[in-house]
Amino acid sequence: MIQLEKGNYTIDKMVRACTQSYGTLTALTTYNKPETAIAYNQLEDMANDVALQLIRKGLPKGGKAAILSESCPNWGLSYFAINKAGAVAVPVLPNFSKTEVEKILEHSEAQYVFVNAANAAKVVDSKAKVIRIEDMAQIPVCEMKKLATCKFADLIGTSLLGTDSLKRKDQMMLEERAPKEDDIASIIYTSGTTGTPKGVMLTNKNLVWNAVTCSTPFIKIHRGWSALSILPLSHVYEFTIGLLLLLINGCTITYLGKAPSTNTLMPALKGVRPHIVLSVPLLIEKVYRRALAPKFKEGTTLAKFAGNRLTSRFVYNMVGRKVIKTFGGRLRFFGVGGSKLDPEVEAFLDKINFPYALGYGLTETSPFIAGCGPKDHVVGTLGAPIEGLDVRIAPEDGEIQLKGPSIMKGYYKMPELTKETFTEDGYFRTGDLGAFEDGRLVIKGRSKSMILGSGGENIYPDNIESLINAQDFVVESLVVPEDRSLTAMVRLDIKALNKTFKDIDIQDFLEKIRSEVNQKLASFSRIHRIKLQETPFERTPTEKIKRYLYTKAM
């Protein structure tokens, strides 16, 4: 792991230290595309090339440059170049619509946008100058106008790479632009919106401090370890933990290059054989419900031996080894973050000794707040906050509040909202409710999603949804208030259900789920109605359902 001196917690200094420490080791690459590989000793030189071109083309210190692309080696290179130019990176989630992208580019005042072919059409009407991320070539406006009839890759541009070695005046220019710890490194727009976008301002120190602090408590990462990246780098979870932290420790990061699915993920796991994978809960929950849970159903051979005190440990250890083999055989750290892991799934992962690790954080906290490593599980809890964060539970409502070096500078152009987000004594309000149990943080719910019962009770719908999702053939669910009671919207695996039960009445099956779940709930939080959700719920990039779109049952 590289060492950064006090005052040098900047991304620019981090990249330089990595370049000097890890030499010819591959830093970034794409699965099955060796031509995309960037070695550690190339990172700084390539970033310098692009940074100098941006400066010469007029990007001022503190100017904004957006990145709109799926994760790839040149995504990180773009970010590092923007940082070296003394500018601010604006990561944009690739699943945002054209309208949302345009609003973000306008609100952030981005002068440049690094974009890939899949998203190029979203910026064709933008005032920002376009840089094709695949080859780091600036595409003039006259060429962008041809996009309707030409492929993005065929548009003629000017490369920002491959300049001569640095001259003294170039070095001086970069030194003058070198960011300081308190300079803003990123403005991150956390979700799509039809109104005014909300951009989180994170400083160099926010991000680097969080990555450095998270490098040692959970697992000892060895230089040369392999990581498979499947999440968007435009989300701070993947950026800080899946990029900065891994580079600090000399890992080789391989990008999937495609949306994760069974057809794309399984070959990559076999080929890369990663030591580290970061994921959102939905991925491992799908693996559990589709491939593992059915084998442990009552009446199966595995269920019989798993229920026997003498053979139980052997069965679960055997299953655990097979699951790890499916992930390539070398897996040491499977990070789960972005949303809550289903308790049933976590309990199973714990039984099979799967090396999962839990993390809790927010974009505004860069992101990591608390969590546990693969050997530090207590099912149902997260773990202790990372050292250096002052975390407290507000006595009046149980909200998790914190101070520390990774807390955002504020929301861009929104001083009033920034002020509201902090307490009078300077603690950041997370909006999450929690408690400490034996020093470990436990998340109780989200204050914004909390439903107030008819008798004034606090009802946390995600807890009810966990019980529903544990039922056979349930894909996902959402609990919403309706007519002073609770309604559950449930999506089922209809194909599997009809294959198992012929001529089944779907509503009767849903009512059976409602009855079984209600038996496990307090009277004030029981489900009054249950409805079939025929289409998938819309989700955020970290696979949380967008609750604000479902204020009542559809």
The major beta sheet can be summarized as: 8 strands, mixed
Give the full name of the CATH homologous superfamily of the largest domain: ANL, N-terminal domain
Using the CA coordinates, give the radius of gyration: 24 Å
Question: What portion of residues belong to β-strands?
Answer: 15-25%
Strands across the major sheet, in which order? 2-1-12-11-13-14-15-16
Give the name of the CATH architecture of the largest domain.
3-Layer(aba) Sandwich
Inertia-based shape: globular
What is the count of DSSP helices, taking H or I runs of 4+ residues? 17
Q: Could you name the CATH topology of the largest domain?
A: Rossmann fold
How many domain regions?
3
Could you walk me through the main structural features you see in this protein, from its secondary elements to its overall organization?
- The chain is α/β, with parallel strands linked by helices and 554 residues long.
- The protein folds into 3 domains: 40-203, Rossmann fold (3-Layer(aba) Sandwich); 280-446, ANL, N-terminal domain (Rossmann fold), CATH 3.40.50.12780; 451-549, ANL, C-terminal domain (GMP Synthetase, Chain A, domain 3, 2-Layer Sandwich).
- 32% of the residues lie in helices and 23% in strands.
- The strands form 6 sheets. An 8-stranded mixed sheet has the order 2-1-12-11-13-14-15-16, with helices on both faces.
- A hairpin with a 6-residue loop joins strand 15 and strand 16.
- Helix 1 (11-22) packs antiparallel against helix 2 and helix 7 packs across helix 8.
- The protein is globular and about 75 Å long.
- The model has no long low-confidence stretch (mean pLDDT 92).
